[in-house]
Design goal:
Helices cover 10% and strands 52% of the residues. With 126 residues, the chain is mainly beta. β5 and β6 form a beta hairpin.
Length: 126
């Protein structure tokens, strides 16, 4: 299938005017989305804490923040990890994908709507 890339924006969660247009690399193996530090600084992203992440080269600790991400006209506030690696692409992780109601279509290599599941639904009489 190859890589799935989509165009979108990363914005400050409390001021959406502070934003950066980016090309996301969709990473369904990543829990959180990831933005490079230079993007986080451009949109004045506030660090809320740190989390440890398992990577191909070992365990790393990265700051996290809250950002507003937009893809295909849909937007959502989500937690993002802030990478100090300036060469790292902007990643769109699975949590953000699910919050956006999107999934990767393995046949087309594009994003498509996700079937959203709820355990309980009471029937309402017409």
């Amino acid at each position: 299938m190859g890589y799935v890339r989509v165009h979108g924006t990363v914005a400050n969660s409390s001021n959406h005017e502070l934003k950066a247009e980016v090309d996301f690399l969709v990473d369904t193996g990543a829990i959180y989305s990831v933005v490079p530090k230079k993007v986080a600084e451009k949109i004045s992203l506030k660090e809320l804490g740190k989390r440890k992440f398992r990577t191909g080269s070992g365990i790393v600790e990265m700051p996290i923040g809250e950002a507003y991400l937009t893809v295909d006209g849909e937007g959502v506030t989500t937690i993002v990890a802030i990478s100090f690696d300036e060469n790292m692409p902007v990643l769109l992780g699975v949590t953000t994908l699910e919050l956006l109601g999107l999934q990767v279509d393995p046949l087309t290599g594009k994003l498509k709507p996700l079937d959203l599941l709820i355990l309980y639904h009471k029937k309402v009489k017409p």
